[in-house]
Predict the structure.
Amino acid sequence: MRILGLSAFYHDSAAVLLEDGRIIAAAQEERFSRIKHDPAFPRRAAAFCVSRAGGPLDAVVYYEKPLLKFERILTTSIAVAPRGFPAFAAALPDWLHHKLWLPGVIEDELIALGCRAVPVHFSGHHEAHAASAFFASPYERAAILTLDGVGEWTTTAFGRGAGNQLELLRGQRFPHSLGLLYSAFTHHCGFRVNSGEYKLMGLAPYGEPRYEETILRHLINLKADGSFRLNLDYFGFLQGEAMTNARFEALFGGPRRTPDAPLTQLQCDLARSIQVVTEEIVLRLARTLHAETGEQNLCLAGGVALNCVANGRLLREGPFQRVWVQPAAGDAGGALGAALAFYHLRHGASRTADGVHDAMQGAFLGSDYSPEEMAAALTERGLPAERLSPDVLHARLAERLEAGDVVGFFQGRAEFGPRALGARSILADARAPEMQRRLNLKIKFRESFRPFAPIVLAEDAAQWFDLTSPSPYMLFTAPVAAAHRRPAASTAKWEERLSAVRSAIPAVTHVDFSARVQTVDHTGNRALHAVLSAFAARTGCPVLVNTSFNVRGEPPVCHPREAVEGFLATEMDALALGPFFVEKRHLAPGQLSSGALPRSFSPD
Amino acid sequence: MRALRNLGRLLRELWAFAREHKAWWIIPVVVILLAAALLLVGVSSISPFIYSLF
C-alpha cells in the first residue's frame, strides 16, 4: 500500500511516501523551493516522493483537520471581537479560497503530477505528531508526549502506543500552549517566530534565570502535574496582532528588541528564564505521563521536542528509562505521522519494533544525485575537481580538517527534518579555538554567539560527553566530559565568555559546557563514520564540528549546484561533493569568483 | 461541474463536522462567508464591464 503524507499551509510543508509501512522518501518543500520554512503546498517535494514510488498511490493523508482548525479560528475571533478583526480578515481569503477546499486542491495537484485521483484523508495534528513519534520509534510500547504551538485545538497531548495501536489519552488546549509561550519570548527578544526559537535556546546559557519567578508569578499558572494556564492579559496572539503586548513589554523592562539591535544581557537573561521554565514544564509533564501510563519508554514530537536542552534533561533526570525523539519533530514530520497513522490505525497494518532500530533510516530520506549530475554542477562553474575513491577521499578530508580547513560535505540522500546529520553538512576541527567565530562570521554569516554541534564516533562518545544513550539525530544536549574541560571564568560579560576556551573541543562547547551531540555509528552514516575515524587516527580526537550546509537565511543545500554556489559564496576551504573533491587553494582567482553574482544574506 | 462537486464535498464535510462536534453554528457562518467571497469575486469580475459602460 502506497500512502502520500502531506503537511502544508502553515510552515515547513513536506511530503512523505510510505510503501507497505516503510518510509521510501521524505522531503521538505523548502529544500526545493529554497524558501526557508516554505508553507506552500509541497508540490516539488510531492513530485520527488511520487518519483520514488514503485507504483500508483493508494491514499493521500493530510496532517490536520482543516474544519476543526477553522472552528478554532472562528471561535477565537468571535471571542476577542472586534479587536482581532484585521488579523481574521487577513487570514480569511486563504481559508475561503484554498484551505476549506483541500481535497479538491490536493486532487488537482496530484493530477498535475501525473497521478490518478485517490481518496484524501485527514489526520488530527497531534495524532500525526504522536504517530510520527511512536510508529517510527524502536519501541514496541511507549508513552507519547507531543508539544507544539497549536494544531487544531490541542497544544499538548499525552498518549500511549502499543504495537500498531496508538491512543491519545488527554491534552491541553489552545490558547494554553508551551510552544506559544516560548515563541512569545522569541518574538520579544527580536528573533523570528517559528524560526528563531533555537537561537533563543542557544542564547540561554549566557544568561541567568532572573525572570523565572516573574514568568511563574505573572504569565503562567503552573500546576504540579505540568499542566498550566497562560495569563492572556500579557499576550497578543489571540488578537493576531503580535505574540506579546504592551503589558508583556512593561513586565520585562521595555519594548521588544528589534531584529537588527545588538543583543544585551537582558535578552540572555530572558532566554535563560524561559528555558528554565520550559524544562520544568516538560519534566513535570513527563513525570505525570509516566505515573499515568506506567510505561518505561517515552516518544516525543511536536516543535517543542526540538528543544534539545529540555530533551537532554529529560534523558538525564526524567522518569523514563529511554527517550526517543522524532528527528522531524516539527510540522514537516506531521506528513510522516499522518501517513503512519493512516497505515496502522485506519488500514490496521501490523508493526514490528525490535527495541533498538527505528524506522527513520538515519533520516536520510531526501533527494540524492548521481556523480554525473555532481560533475555537471562543477563544470557549470568551471571548477576542476579530483574524483577520488571513498578511502582516499576520507583520508584527504581528515588531512584538510586537521590543517584547519572548513569543508562542505555533500554525500548521499538529504536529511529529512531540520538538522544536518552528515549528508548536507559543513565539517570543521572542533579543537580549533577560533573555529566557532570563523564559522559564524565567515561561512554562515550569522550571530557570533550561536553554538555549533559536535559529531562524535558512537564508540567513543562516552569518553567525550556525559551521554547516557546514543544521539544519532542531534536532539539531546550533554555536558562535555570533565576530563576534557578547562576552567573558564564564569563572571565575565557574556560577550567575553564567547572567546573563552572551555574544553579540548572549544568550537562545540557551549558556555555551560554543554554540547548538542550527534553520535555517528558505522551503520547509520558510513561515509561520515569513515571521515571521523580517519580524523581520530590522525589527531586522537574523534570529534568534529557539524553544521548545516547553508548560509544565513537559506535552507540547507539540496542540489549539487547549490552546494557549489555555497562553496564559492563563502570562505569554505574545500568541498567534498560525492566522490569529487575541490580545494580553493588550488583554484585560480578567476575560478574562485566563477562569475557568481554578489550574494546578500537575509536574516534568518 | 468540478466546482459543484467540490462544493458538495465541502458541504458534506461541514455537515459531518457539525454533527460530530455539535457545532451547528459553523454551518451558517461558513455558508455566509463563502457566499460573501463568491459575491466579492463576482463583483470584482463584472466591475470592469460596468465601468466601461459609464
